[in-house]
Specification:
The complex is a heterodimer of chains A (about 625) and B (about 325). Chain A has about 625 residues and is of the alpha/beta class. Chain A is built from 20 helices and 23 strands. Chain B has about 325 residues and is of the alpha/beta class. Chain B contains eleven helices and nine strands. The chains are: A alpha/beta (about 625), B alpha/beta (about 325). At the A-B interface, β9, α9, α11, α12 and β17 of A face β1, β2, α3, α5 and α11 of B.
Chain lengths: ~625, ~325
Amino acid sequence: MSANATTSATKTSRTRAKKPRVIKASQHILEVVSDSGEGAQKCGQSFGLISAKMGNGVWTVEIIPAEIQPPVRTPGSASGVRIRLGEDKITNWGDETNLVIAFNEQVLLSRHRLDALADNATILIESAWETHEDPSVRQAWTTAMEELSTKSYRFINVPMEEQTLTITDNPRRGKNMFALGVLSWIYKRDMDKVRAQITDQFVKKGDEVVKANIDLVELGETWASKNIEFRIDVKPTAPEQEMVVMNGNQATAMGAIASGMELCSMYPITPATSVSHSLGDIFETFGGIVHQAEDEIAAIGVAIGASFAGNVAFTVTSGPGMALKTEFIGLAVMTETPLVIVDVQRGGPSTGLPTKVEQADLLAAIFGQPGDVPHVVMAPSTIEDCFHAVITARRIAETFRCVVMVLTDANLATGVQPFVRPALDTRWHAAPLNLEPVGDNASPYDWNNDTGLSQRFIPGQPGGMFTATGLAHDKNSKVDYSPDNNEKTMAMRSRKIAVLQSTLKPPTVHGEDDGDILVVGWGSTKGAIEEAVDRANETGLRASSLHLTFLSPLEPGLKGIFSRFKKVMTVEINYSDRVGDPYITDESRRRGQLSWLLRASTLADVDCWTRVPGQPLRPGAILDAIVKNIPIGATHD
Amino acid sequence: MTDCSLLTCGVEDERTFEMDDYADAMPRWCPGCGDHAVLTAVERVLEKEQLRPEQTVFVSGIGCSSRFPHYLDTYGFHGLHGRALPLATGVKLSRPDLNVFVVMGDGDCTSIGAGHWLHALRYNMRMVVLMLDNEVYGLTKKQTSPTTPLGFPTNTQPRGSYLPPLNPISVMLGMTNASFIAQTADWVPAHLFETIEAAFHHDGFAFIRVLQRCPVFSANIFERAVKSPDLTELLVDDQGINVTNLGGLYKNLLRHDPSDLDRARWLAEPSDKIRLGLFYQNQAHPKYEETRKVKHHTPAEKIALLNTELDRYAV
């Protein structure tokens, strides 16, 4: 349908007063996209928060341009938020978008070109460009509309600028709230909650700003009520438990506070930095410090120094920062200084896709340090997990005097999801510093032969004086290069990890305990994988999935679980060669990172299906992969 | 930050310490190495100040001189090449109650660790920072360091080093927040001791460049200065480091007010004399551990606060 046709349709509808058609949906995906700087992100985030607070299931994904101020009205300028709204809990971003509100046709094009939009998506678009005074703008509109006409999108023209100009001088700053009003009407949002959200968001800027924004929202709501013929009803379910809603980096920050940590030593890097922003506002009121170091290396060095002095600290970074921290990671492991490192993964290699998701740091995290560097690697798979993972990580780090890496990713970092409000517990906190004198014959590395564990001495403890060193050392931390000592100390550092493994529970299988295909995942893909498996089961396929939180050490019992499936396949957001591509043989094929790890540790023939789109995986795409990879001759129920 | 221990709860600590109490393993430096003199001077300062060994932390990087903490019976952290200062920053930031000393070599401090060196000075945390400068890489067997004199042959630059040396004192004097910048030499033990002593009493980041002989790889660099005290000029002032009892050997005394930054910078420029003494001191800069001081809370208090914070995210 051409844009012109819809314009006239909209015009006629203005005079209409009949009741709008209500479309009931168990879930719906919408997007708000604008030029960078026009505030679509704020609009989308507010919509997501309001919806979560109403009791809808929500998962948001940010649409982020690569530059701070890209040229306006270009596909590269697209900035916004994609929100999947559900009656119940939503665990992933879903498949294609059902409804878009776009501030110009160019940013819409970028979404179209990414195949982000459903064939029959409804598109609300700013109509000012079609009749713009600049002929080149009109031409760009016409060309874009031709390209967009390859799909059967349904366009609705929205005079955003015309409308917002009635109450504000600068439509570039007002359209986003107008759009929020339009969406709020369409999705039957609770307007009291909308106003409360806006008040909360702008309260620091004063009453006038709050009122101006509420006026704009109400203008959008009124316009929509007179001009839109349909409403979408995704019923909120009142949650049975108290819920909180936040993004993964906020959850990581809150988890760090809940764990009692008092130092976050970091260097700015996308997409990890906002953890420190969340802490920066409030950490000091908890007795905590965000130390912005001069570089990534100093950031981890300061954290290790603090931890050596008795306060378990953490550092937060992303792939390139992990690379720089490598030598210090080795030192922390060698000196058995507890440390938590949060790696918010982004697309690599090198500077790669700084704002986009990838799960490509797994092998570097586990094996990337020269020498033998036994440590713990875990990966939260939901935003709620981000909160709890940091608490678990700190406890493990302290109990085992070891380094714990927590791998989140850009999808979790910026995604917003409601979760059960955690019941905080003082036991999550670090034990107070024990500066009791140390006995005469006590050693700083008095390894228990069975467990490799040893007591940690803290500066200030009389009698405990020792010099921590990255050189090979004996139980008294004296430099010792002898073969026996080296063999023993390597074993001691490694054994701790085995002891931790012995305390882990076997992972639970999602779906039947045996079957034709088992999908194995880790990190942020959990929701999408499980939804794909559920859909596969609905069509009668015997598929199950398993999601790993601990990657090093691996959770127990994997070999046994794998043996009950005809095929085991990882699904990951990292690169693997595709079977059938030139030169790719079973021998030459480079596989997904978890698949390498599982093949090595279980000797099972673990296949992989991986993609690197710089976006989360869609459940529909995973379902296709399951269907294609299910072994020939598999039973159909 | 520290929890109550017997030593911090008003119980009188009646222990006294002698130099030997601070000594640990037998140093493994070469005979004639200037590091021995620095170790002795440090032990004298520890004894004079009666620092409690458990309250004292020596942090080092990698290099000959960075073995330093192993030879002292205090807490120590023998870290990574170039990275002593970030470790020391972490120690002091989380435990301002500890006495922190940092020992680095010239390659450690001014080459691989140069970035941290500049920024640690800006943080201005109270610690004594010794840069033992033998103007060559020793542990890896004679490679050029940033402070190696122009034309000095090494194994990596056998036809002589190509660049004029980096001047650590002028670098430090050029930095924002410079607060204590001094130079001394291993072969003038009384001056060495007084300088470290003054640095210990300085309320901020005290940087000392110790000119240090390496008898194996750079013996000739300081040979003339050692043999001819006339080539040395001592910066003296009532407010500076006054070492008068040098047996009358060092006759070139230059009055220098250590609060005079412009003159300090001029004095740091290359000249025909080696200048030892306090170039600059300013105790007015805020210390990072004070600026970042936070009130600590019990876990129960933190949970109450965090619950209030979570209300903001409540559905």
